[in-house]
Please model this.
Amino acid sequence: MDAPDREEKTSLIQCSLRHVLTDSRGNQVQAAEAEGIIDKEYLTIVPKLGEIIPIHLRDVARVEARDYRVILSLASGEKLVLSDLGNNYEDFIRVLRDQRNEVTIKDMLMNETVRNPDFEAEFTYQTLGTPEVKGFCKIRLYETSLVVMSEDGEVFRIPLSDVAKVTIEEYAVKLDTEFGERLVLQRMGSEFEPFTKALSDASNDLQKKSVSIIKDFLPGIDSYSLRKIAGLMKEGRAARKEDIIAIDPEAFGKLESRLKAAGLEESYGYLKALGRQEKICIGFKRGLVGDLTGEYVWFLVPIYGHANTGGNVLAMESVLVGEENPVGATYFFRIVSRKAYPDYGVAELDEENDRLVRTLNRCMIDINFRREPVYLPLERLDEPEYLRYKIALRRLPSLRLIRNLFIGRVMHSSPDQWRRDVDELLRFNTTEKDDSAKWKP
Model:
């Protein structure tokens, strides 16, 4: 029987098996002897008699292997059980897991360079408010992140810039992040020392890039301030004015001049006049940005606490320096619930804003500073060119949260129009009580 009518793919493994497909209620849909074929994106079940079952590997939610059976939980709620694989069982499992991981990593918008081949380990992972996850995994180091690929199909990414502490003891590596995540890696055998060296090298190289940018932007800065400010701005993170001036009182003003050079002077100046001054943030990134390469400049201005203007927003604007025909826009995010906003004091809003800034930093790093995943309406994500963003939305908690808080964007058609629309959006956000409502020009 012919394979599904789609682009011809080279199979990575093909073998005889028996399959049982059940629907979301546990009712058997199909059971028969078949051929199982895995290529770079699909697992295809081709029965001797019956309907072909093509399954995109991104739709495999979980992979279990026990008693010489492969049990696949699918995103549709269906379950597929594969058995009678014979001598192909271990190779089939390996190829299935590896290719599913590659598809997942691609869907998570990662197109960085891989620094090291995969390491194998036993892992334990936990983040605040979630159950502990453990098992065996492969670990891959990229230029700016560490990716854990578990045997059951879970894939999660930890940006190296979010790692607050690394502890190495008794042949175990413990990583604690600023978001309360903890990853423990152990039972690595002979790969332990190569992994710890590779992790150290990746972290050091990331810090060197940050140091290089700050040296260029702040010539003559003393060594202590250089180290501290570079630490705040690793991997393009936007750092708060109050944190920067606590290190060097003159540094923030010099960094603001980079916004002017990048063409952001007018919008930054207008928002700054409305904003919570000490909470303004600036960030810079060099290298791969989205699908382009260059220097990325961005700022965050929180607006709240004024009696005569709207607020409850964190404004974000960015530019890829030298980008051909850039489409400029300012993006706005809700800080707290609209109904609850009037009851918040400034000190409480400061705390909520700081939390949102951390999340927005994480989100921009997770999506590699792309902007489309943030503002495109959900229905647009079904279009072929944006489908990867829909999958990323499923995989990245930070993106889901930021999209939920997104209010709208104001385009730079003309200076007067931009200011009018900004004022209108700010009023909208304090008069509208439905948190799900988006501003429309």
User: Anything to note?
Assistant: The two ends are 54 Å apart (CA to CA). The longest strand covers residues 292-303. Residues 119-206 form a domain with the PH-domain like fold (CATH 2.30.29.30).
